[in-house]
Write a structure and sequence with these properties.
The complex is a heterodimer.
Chain A: H1 2-27, E1 44-48, H2 49-63, E2 68-71, H3 86-90, E3 95-97, H4 102-114, E4 119-122, H5 133-140, H6 143-146, E5 156-162, H7 177-181, E6 187-189, H8 194-206, E7 211-216, H9 219-222, E8 224-228, E9 240-243, E10 249-252, H10 256-271, E11 276-279, E12 282-284, H11 288-298, E13 301-308, H12 313-325, E14 334-338, H13 348-351, H14 355-367
Parallel strand pairs in A: 2-3, 2-4, 4-5, 5-7, 6-7, 10-11, 10-13, 13-14
Antiparallel strand pairs in A: 1-8, 6-12, 9-11
Chain B: H1 15-20, E1 36-38, E2 43-45, E3 63-64, H2 84-109, H3 123-132, E4 138-140, H4 146-152, H5 156-164, E5 187-188, H6 197-209, E6 218-223, H7 230-241, E7 246-252, E8 255-256, E9 259-260, H8 261-264, H9 274-277, E10 280-285, H10 289-306, E11 310-315, H11 334-342, H12 346-356, H13 362-385, H14 404-420
Parallel strand pairs in B: 3-10, 4-5, 4-6, 6-7, 7-11, 10-11
Antiparallel strand pairs in B: 1-2, 8-9
Helix pairs in contact in B: 2-3, 2-4, 2-12, 2-13, 3-4, 3-10, 5-13, 6-7
Classes of the chains: A alpha/beta, B alpha/beta.
Protein name (chain A): 2-oxoisovalerate dehydrogenase subunit beta, mitochondrial
EC number (chain A): 1.2.4.4
Cofactor (chain A): thiamine diphosphate
C-alpha cells in the first residue's frame, strides 16, 4: 500500500513537473527587470515577492499588537505561502483561517478595523473578490464619509493575488483594478516586485484609509531583489519613472511594467529611440502629475494593462491625458491591453498585451 | 430544536437514542451492530435506513416570555431584577420613540424631511436589549433600532438633526434620514445595504476579545429579510468558527417591506439557523421587554465569559409601514395590524407591568406622552432653522487626506459656482 502510494506520488510529481514546464513556457511572456536601488540604506536580503510580502506582514505583526492576518488557508501559510511561518510565530489568534467566504472575510475585516485594530485580509485570488465587492465598495470605502469621520476603516488592508500566471484561465488570471478604481474612498495599489511590494504593503497597512493590495501572482517566485530588511514605506498615490526618455511615455502597473521595460529596450535597439517608462503603482488615487508631466515632455503615450480594454483603467488615464496634455500630444493616446473577452486558458499568449503587441503599437504611435 | 443531546451520539450503547435524534416524531428501529462514522466533516452514527430530515423533524424553537398579554409576570422566578429607575427609563424611551416616530412620520408626509422609518411594535426589543447591555458594548444596527440609540443617551435633537442632514449632523448630511451613528455612544454609523453590518459585527467582536481584560461585547441587530442575505450566513459561520463575543439579534417582525416571512424562508424561522451553525440560540417574545432583557443579559454573560456567539430571534410585528415610501395596507389586512397594535403592543404590556408594580399611573403617563411630543416638535423647529453643512463637505472625508484629484474637483466646482452660483440653493448651506 505504501509502495503504491509512493509510486503514485512519484508519478504525480513527474506530472506536476511536466505541467510546470509547460506552464513556465506559457508564462514567460516577460523578462523580470529587478529594482537595483534600495529605497533605504542598510542591510538587504535577497527575497522574492512572496518573501517580501511575508516580511512586511511579519514586521506588522511584530510591531502592532492589534494586527491580525486571516483568510482562506492562511493558517498554514496561504496557498501562495505569503503567510508562511507567521502563525507559528504570532499565534492562532493572530494568524488564522476563516470559512470559505469572501464577503465574510471582507466584512469581518471591516469590523476588526472598526473596533480599532489592524486587519490584513487575504482573498485567495482576486478573481474571487466579487462576493466581497459589496463590503468593499459600499462599506469599507464609504465608512469614513458616511459617518463624518467617526468610524473610518483605515485599519483594513485586503490582499489579493491577481493577473496572468500562464495557466490560470478565466478564474485565476483577472486584473480587477478598474472595478475598484471607480470607488471613491478605496485605495488600490499594485507592486511590480519585492521592493515595491514590501514598501507599499507596509504603507497600505498603516494608511488611514482602506486599501486593496493586488499582488501579481506570477511575481511571487519569479521576481527576486535585494530588499532592505528594515522597515520602510513607499508613498501611495505616487508613480515612479523607471526609465527616462523623450520619444514616448509608456505606462503600466504590476507585471506589465516589466513588459514595457523590455519594449523600451527593444525600442532603443530596433528603433533607436528613448522612451520613458512609468510604473503607476497606485491606481487609486493615481499620480496625475507625474503622468502628465511626462506626456507633456514626450508628446506620445502608450498605456498597457492586462485587463480588458473597455473601461479598463487605461481609459481613465487616456481621458485625463487628452484633457491635460492636449496641445502637447503628437498622436492619440494608445492602449494595448487584454482583449474584450474573458481571460482564456490556452490562448493566453495571444490574449496578453505582449511586448510584440506593445512594440507594434509603439511603432505606429511614433510614426503617427 | 430537539437535537440537543449530541454528546450521546458518541456512546455506542445509546445508539438507539442516537438514531432517534433524527426525529422526535418517529422511532425508527434500532440498528444492530451500528457504528459511529468518523469523517473529517462529521462524526455521527451509521444507519441502514435512509431518512431525509424535514421541517417536521424538529420541534419549533419555543418562544420565551416573562410577561403575558396583560403585562403580568407568568413565572415569578423569571422576572428580572431591574431597579425602578431603569424600568421607568425603559418605558420612557419606548414612549419617546413612539411619539418621535409619529411626528417624524407626519413631517415626512408634509415634505419637511425626505424619508423616515418608524419603529412601531418593536420598541420592546430595543429597550429590552439596550438595558441588558453595557453602554460600552458596540452596537451594529440595521435601521429600525432607534430605541437602542435613545436608551443609550442619543438625544432627540441628535436624531432629528440627522434626519434633517443639517450642520449639526455628525454624518454631515451625506446620508438619508435614519442613518444614525455615534462614536460617543458606541453606535456604528448605519448604512443602507442589508446585512452588511453582520460580518462586520463579528469582526469587531473578534478584535474586542483580543483586547486584554476585555469587558465589551458586540450586538448586531438585523431583520428577518436581512437574514436571507449571504452576509447573514457568513456572519453566523464566522461568529461560531472564530469564537466571537457577539450577540446576533434578529428582529423578526414578519415582513421585509411587503414580503411576508412565509415567502422569505422555509423552516423554523431565523432561529433555526443558529444552533446547527454552532451559535447558542434562543427565541423570545419581542413584544415583551423583560423577555428580551433576560435573553440579552444571559447572552452577554455567555459572550463575555466564554467568547460564545449567541443568536436571539425576537418575534414581533412591524406595526408601521416599512418606510414613508410604503403603504402596507396594499399587502396585509388592517385587522392584522390592529391586533398587533393593541393586545400585543409592547408599550401597553410594559405599562401594565409598571402599573401593577406601583411604579406608574395614568397621570404620569399622560404627562410623559405630552412631554415626549413637545420635545420632538420643539427640536424639529430648531433643526429646520439650522443651515446645511458647507457645500465643500460634499468632497471631504472621502479619504483621511484629500487627494490632488479631489482637490482639483473642489476647485472646478468653486469656479463653476462663481459664474453659475445663482442656479444652486447655496443659501441653504453654511458659508465656509
Amino acid at each position: 500500500m505504501n509502495a503504491l502510494t509512493t509510486q503514485n506520488v512519484s508519478t504525480l510529481t513527474k506530472l506536476v513537473k511536466c505541467v510546470n514546464a509547460y506552464s513556465k513556457r506559457l508564462s514567460s511572456h516577460f523578462i523580470y527587470f529587478p529594482d537595483n536601488e534600495a529605497p533605504l540604506e542598510g542591510e538587504t536580503s535577497k527575497m522574492n515577492m512572496m518573501q517580501a510580502i511575508n516580511n512586511a506582514m511579519d514586521l506588522t505583526l511584530k510591531n502592532d499588537p492589534t494586527a491580525v492576518l486571516f483568510g482562506e488557508d492562511v493558517a498554514f501559510g496561504g496557498v501562495f505561502r505569503c503567510a508562511l511561518g507567521l502563525q507559528e510565530k504570532y499565534g492562532k489568534d493572530r494568524v488564522f483561517n476563516t470559512p470559505l467566504c469572501e464577503q465574510g472575510i471582507a466584512g469581518f475585516g471591516i469590523g476588526v478595523a472598526t473596533a480599532g485594530a489592524t486587519a490584513i485580509a487575504e482573498i485567495q485570488f482576486a478573481d474571487y473578490i466579487f462576493p466581497a465587492f459589496d463590503q468593499l465598495v459600499n462599506e469599507a470605502a464609504k465608512a469614513r464619509y458616511r459617518s463624518g469621520g467617526q468610524f473610518p476603516c483605515g485599519g483594513l488592508t485586503v490582499r489579493a493575488p491577481c493577473s496572468a500566471v500562464g495557466h490560470g484561465g478565466l478564474y485565476h488570471s483577472q486584473s480587477p483594478e478598474a472595478y475598484f478604481a471607480h470607488t471613491p474612498g478605496l485605495k488600490v495599489v499594485i507592486p511590480r516586485g519585492p521592493i515595491t511590494a514590501k514598501g507599499l504593503l507596509l504603507s497600505c497597512v498603516r494608511d488611514r484609509d482602506p486599501c486593496l493590495f493586488l499582488e501579481p501572482k506570477i511575481l511571487y517566485r519569479s521576481a527576486n531583489e535585494m530588499v532592505p530588511v528594515d522597515d520602510y514605506t513607499l508613498p501611495i498615490g505616487k508613480a515612479q519613472v523607471l526609465r527616462e526618455g523623450d520619444a514616448a511615455t509608456l505606462i503600466a502597473w504590476g507585471t506589465q511594467v516589466h513588459v514595457l521595460l523590455e519594449v523600451a529596450q527593444m525600442a532603443k535597439e530596433k528603433l533607436n529611440v528613448n522612451v520613458e517608462v512609468i510604473d503607476l503603482m497606485s491606481i487609486l488615487p493615481w499620480d496625475e502629475e507625474t503622468v502628465c508631466n511626462s506626456v507633456k515632455k514626450t508628446g506620445r503615450c502608450l498605456i498597457s494593462h492586462e485587463a480588458p480594454l473597455t473601461s479598463g483603467f487605461g481609459a481613465e488615464l487616456a481621458a485625463t491625458i487628452q484633457e491635460e496634455c492636449f496641445l502637447h500630444l503628437e498622436a492619440p493616446v494608445s492602449r494595448v491591453t487584454g482583449w474584450d473577452s474573458p481571460f482564456p486558458h490556452v490562448f493566453e499568449p495571444l490574449y496578453l498585451p505582449t511586448k510584440w503587441r506593445c512594440l507594434d503599437q509603439l511603432e505606429k504611435l511614433l510614426r503617427y | 430544536m430537539a437535537l440537543k443531546c449530541g454528546v450521546r451520539v458518541f456512546k455506542l450503547n445509546t445508539i438507539r437514542q442516537a438514531v432517534r435524534l433524527l426525529s422526535t416524531h418517529s422511532s425508527p428501529e434500532a440498528v444492530q451492530n451500528a457504528k459511529v462514522g468518523d469523517f473529517p466533516g462529521a462524526r455521527a452514527p451509521y444507519v441502514t435506513e435512509l431518512k431525509f430530515l424535514s421541517e417536521a423533524s424538529y420541534d419549533p424553537i419555543p418562544i420565551y416570555r416573562v410577561l403575558d398579554h396583560n403585562g403580568q409576570v407568568i413565572d415569578g422566578r423569571e422576572e428580572p431584577n431591574i431597579d425602578k429607575e431603569t424600568l421607568l427609563n425603559m418605558y420612557k424611551t419606548m414612549v419617546q420613540l413612539s411619539q418621535m416616530d409619529k411626528i417624524m412620520y407626519e413631517s415626512q408626509r408634509q415634505g419637511r424631511i425626505s424619508f423616515y422609518m418608524t419603529n412601531y411594535g418593536e420598541e420592546g426589543i430595543h429597550v429590552g436589549s439596550a438595558a441588558a447591555l453595557s453602554p460600552s458594548d458596540l452596537v451594529f444596527a440595521q435601521y429600525r433600532e432607534v430605541g437602542v440609540l435613545l436608551y443609550r443617551g442619543m438625544t432627540v435633537t441628535e436624531i432629528v438633526n440627522q434626519c434633517y442632514g443639517n450642520c449639526e449632523d455628525p454624518g454631515r448630511g451625506r446620508q438619508m434620514p435614519v442613518h444614525y451613528g455615534s462614536k460617543q455612544h458606541n453606535i456604528v454609523t448605519l448604512s443602507s445595504p442589508l446585512a452588511t453590518q453582520m460580518p462586520q459585527a463579528v469582526g469587531a467582536a473578534y478584535a474586542l476579545k483580543r483586547v486584554p481584560n476585555n469587558d465589551r461585547c458586540v450586538i448586531c441587530y438585523f431583520g428577518d429579510g436581512a437574514a436571507s442575505e449571504g452576509d447573514a450566513h457568513a456572519a453566523f459561520n464566522f461568529a461560531a468558527t472564530l469564537d466571537c463575543p457577539v450577540i446576533m439579534l434578529c428582529r423578526n417582525n414578519g415582513y421585509a417591506i411587503s414580503t411576508p416571512t412565509r415567502e422569505q424562508y422555509r423552516g423554523d424561522g431565523v432561529g433555526a439557523r443558529g444552533a446547527p451553525l454552532g451559535l447558542r440560540t434562543a427565541r423570545v417574545d419581542g413584544t415583551d421587554p423583560l423577555a428580551v432583557y433576560r435573553a440579552v443579559a444571559a447572552a452577554r454573560g455567555r459572550a463575555l465569559a466564554h467568547n460564545q456567539p449567541v443568536l436571539i430571534e425576537a418575534m414581533a410585528y412591524r406595526v408601521g409601514h416599512h418606510s414613508t415610501s410604503d403603504d402596507s395596507t396594499a399587502y396585509r389586512p388592517a385587522e392584522e395590524i390592529h391586533k398587533w397594535n393593541s393586545e400585543e403592543s409592547p408599550i401597553r404590556k410594559f405599562r401594565q407591568y409598571l402599573e401593577q408594580k406601583g411604579y406608574w399611573d395614568v397621570e404620569s403617563d399622560e404627562a410623559l406622552f405630552k412631554e415626549a411630543r413637545n420635545r420632538v416638535v420643539k427640536t424639529m423647529q430648531e433643526a429646520e432653522k439650522k443651515k446645511l453643512p458647507p457645500w465643500k463637505e460634499m468632497l471631504e472625508d472621502v479619504y483621511y487626506e484629500m487627494p490632488p484629484r479631489i482637490q482639483k474637483q473642489v476647485k472646478q466646482m468653486e469656479d463653476h459656482l462663481k459664474n453659475y452660483g445663482e442656479h444652486y440653493p447655496l443659501d441653504k448651506y453654511q458659508p465656509e
